Amino acid sequence: MKDKLAFSSKEQTQILFRLLSYLKPHKKAVVLALFLLMLTVIGDVVGPYLIGIFLDEHVAKNQFDLKPILYLAVSYFIIQILNVVISYIQLVKFQEIALKVIQQLRIDVFSKIHGLGMRYFDETPAGSIVSRATNDTEAIKELFVSVLSSFVQAAFLIVGVYIAMFLLNPLLALYALVLLPLIFLVIYLYRKYSSVVFMTMREKLSQLNAKLAESLSGMGIIQTFRQEQRFSDEFDQINEEHYVAMMNNIKLNSLLLRPVIDLIFFSAIVIILTYFGMTSFNTAIEVGVVYVFITYINRFFEPINNVMERLAFYQQAIVAASRVFDLLDDEEVEPKQKESDLTIRDGLIEFKDVTFSYNGKTNVLKNISFTVKPGETVALVGHTGSGKSSIINLLMRFYEFEEGDILIDGKSIKSYGKNEIRSKLGLVLQDPFLFYGTIASNIRLLDANLTAEHVVEAAKFVQADKFIEQLPNQYEQKVSERGSTFSSGQRQLVAFARTIATNPKILVLDEATASIDTETEVAIQSSLEKMRKGRTTIAIAHRLSTIQDAEQILVLHQGEIVERGTHQELLAQKGLYHKMYLLQNGIVE
């Protein structure tokens, strides 16, 4: 679902109620916080009333009996102290609830990200995803921290103040009630126009994060090709658009928040003073009543001002929540696997008339059929874009296919559990990814079944132990982000060790030796031969010299298998494979 530029009141309400549903696990804490909030409101209403009694019963009548005055003073003092203590407790409680809600929301977002299909990451910039998981969830926090408590406090205070005013002077209270429609009109206008501004702000912030993330990940290429100025100009443009959106927000807040409400407040004061002024011509006016009414009007508008100021946070939270919920509701999930007890025992792989498209329009694989017997090695070769990696992506269940089927040991790959697929298929990519941590943690990947001995054994098996043992801390050597301090060959060797440590039944090599120098490649060929023994292996290779011993070689062209056979059989056919072989060996016919 794409970002919208505006939300209707109904949509905003739906988003709000969905956010409030995160409060369900904290019902008791919410009830306690609201009860404490109500107590502070009662204190705010009773305090001015006690002062009004003092003015009318003692100051106006010039009666200063110590006992009743002391009683009023002590009561007022106790109420104020209790208000301070209770306010502190309820503020802490609301903060605690808010942090727990955001904590759960971020867990949901992080879990959802790991369950999204590869198509989502193909279409969405990484910076935009990071922005939703961090900036947007942080904006939502304000809804629970200050907005809801302010709204509830305002509701309690408005009701309490109006009840008190009606008890003092019903007619004047009705006059003051006329101002409420004006306040609601301002709130309606603000909500209507601010949602557009806030959505633009969030989108521009997301683009800023995406551009920054892209620049950081591609800094080497940027500097190599002297693209610093171009990226700087692009960043400046997005930054300027974000600035304009922020200024539009400031202008809207400056007009419809405090200034307009202050104007209505001054109008209310004028109404009250006019009323008492007109009334004073016919009857005596109690000073305490005037004071109480003025104070109540001030107390009435104080929470409204707070609400209006926090409407900005409310709108930001609603817009941010819509972006987060778009991610949580995204249907581009990882291909689902049935809960199954089926196990992969032999490693027999069969592709049966598999047709696949990434975008639903152009087929990148067309009626692919082949069989890999247990223990055999099948190599996939072909020019860039021929469909080699797509076959691997389907076998690893990164994407869902619609036509045909893939069988493992005679059972559809869709009938196996995800854990079984992931544990029995070992994948080594052309560009291995190392996580921040140590060499050992990158080989083990937090697998509790792998001991330190297993890690060392796996490293020795692929001959990665030679460079690891030369490091200062050996297997505990720190690995920076993406393993940038290691060479491509060293990273690839760690990836080999990581894969072999899990003892997979099926081995998938996606141009796994492409990043390794010739000397290292020769050194690990014997290890690869050992790895392939007893394992079904599918290997993508550009260097035809590395797959000459494969039992079967499939030559792909534009998503179809155009040739198949052993190395010698394909050379004898003098087709596409023969041409590729001659080119790689520099032979001109």
TrEMBL record:
Q: Which domain of life is it from?
A: Bacteria
Q: Which SUPFAM superfamilies match?
A: ABC transporter transmembrane region, P-loop containing nucleoside triphosphate hydrolases
Q: Ranges for the ABC transmembrane type-1 domain?
A: 31-316
Boundaries of every ABC transporter domain copy: 349-583
PROSITE patterns xref list:
ABC_TM1F, ABC_TRANSPORTER_1, ABC_TRANSPORTER_2
| Record flagged with keyword Nucleotide-binding | yes
Query: Which parts pass through the membrane?
Result: 29-49, 69-91, 143-165, 171-190, 255-277
Q: What Pfam families does the record tag this protein with?
A: ABC_membrane, ABC_tran
Gene3D superfamilies, per the entry: ABC transporter type 1, transmembrane domain (1.20.1560.10), P-loop containing nucleotide triphosphate hydrolases (3.40.50.300)
Q: Where in the cell is it found?
A: Cell membrane
What is the predominant subcellular site recorded for this chain?
Answer: membrane
Topology relative to the membrane: Multi-pass membrane protein
Q: Which InterPro entries match?
A: AAA+_ATPase, ABC1_TM_dom, ABC1_TM_sf, ABC_transporter-like_ATP-bd, ABC_transporter-like_CS, P-loop_NTPase, Type_1_exporter
Q: What keywords are annotated for this sequence in UniProt?
A: ATP-binding, Membrane, Nucleotide-binding, Transmembrane, Transmembrane helix
Q: What is this protein called?
A: ABC transporter transmembrane domain-containing protein
Question: Which organism does this sequence originate in?
Answer: Ureibacillus aquaedulcis
